[in-house]
Amino acid sequence: MAEATRQASPPVPGAEVLAEGGQTACSGIGCGPVHLVRCDEDLDAFPPGAVLVAPHSSPQFMVAMKRAAAIVTDHGSVTGHMASLSREFGVPTLLGLDGATHRLIQGEAVTVDAASCRIYRGRVEGLLAETADKAETAFMAGTQVHAILAAVASRIVPLTLLDPRAKSFGPAGCVSLHDVTRLLHEWSYGEMFAVSDLAAGQGGGTVTLAASTGLDLHIIDLGGGIKDEAADKSRVAPEDIASRPFAALLTGLVLTGEARAVRPVNLGGFLSVMSQQMLSQPKPGEDRFGEKSYAIISDKYLNFSSRVGYHYGVLDCYCGATVNKNYITFSFAGGAANDVKRARRARAIARILGELGFTVDTAADRVAGRFQKFPADVIEEKLGHMGRLLQFTRQTDMLMVSEASIEAMVACFLSGAPCFDPAKAGPAPEDA
Predict the structure, then answer these.
(1) If you placed Cys at 328, which of 43, 86, 97, 371 could pair as Cys (CB 3.0 to 4.6 Å)?
(2) Quick one: 205 exposed, middle or buried, by C-beta within 10 A (0-12, 13-18, 19+)?
(3) DSSP characters over 224-248
(4) pLDDT tens, position by position, 120-142
(5) Which residues contact 119 (CB under 8 A, 6 or more apart)?
């Protein structure tokens, strides 16, 4: 599908234009109060007749589409999944309007003219009257052809698999081809996290990174990930990397200056970790992961598996010219400390990912985040932060000595500090 182009119709005389630009995913006029959606909880409270305004398009918005007067996002593609859903539901939708979440105020009444890519302050009665005058009669309604097409569409179009965490999210829950593709899409993400496991323990075909990362980092080039002039090297430097996502990750992963200094250690937390590891027996599936880390790369793809001690982090990314293909997924779990400290670290990482714009899920000591359908330069910026996050969170579970440590760790990372200083957690007593 070709991208939507902006119409040449002039602004409504006398009406104040609040924002202009973006692309039309579904034409039409919608009016209502602005309702900002930054997380799933904001969807739960979505009021009928409101204008949904969000940083990025998401298929999750389907749960509010029957109530939405219009949808506006800072980022998103008219060829994406949510754009297709908005057309199916007939919700006027304007995507890629940069800065919309900052310019449109929660609760303010606006009129969205998706066809002309404009948003007006208040109700623009002239536009709303034109919409009311248009008949919404289905094409060929009442004919035998329409009935046949409607029956076929009922097996193709509806999407009922909405929540990957639901018990019904599986083959038995599929009632349409849309459900099948949604299920396969989710399964494919799970498989991406396992890609690096295929390389673990295989010594052949890898090169090592000659840079200060603190990791035993091995690189597998699928093609186009390493510059031609360095193709025969057994050790490559960051400047030899041609992979766009891996080069971006290395801007935060490679340690420089202050970041090379010895990290702070909480003595009580360290002794707690040591005593627990000496007294406890390894549980099935919780054995030490090994010390090798792998980066599987191509010119636009990266699967990075960081395995240190008893924790692991896996980052999977595509970064290219097609916005709709770009994504970052990240999963982190494990640690050497007790369950409480590991869970605190996971909650802190989840908070940091949320601040970076990721959609996040947490369970116990595990955290998973997803960031998708943004331009390559935005993906590269986030990868730089992710490289720093991978360094920042190493061996921090023993530092999570109180609930105050969570806020302190988040604030410390967002300040740009190279490592977490537990002293900033305050004088709160250490938990057992």
Answers:
(1) 371
(2) exposed
(3) SSB-GGGTT-SEE-GGGB--HHHHH
(4) 999 998 888 876 555 444 555 67
(5) 17, 18, 19, 20, 72, 94, 97, 100, 104, 110, 111, 112, 113
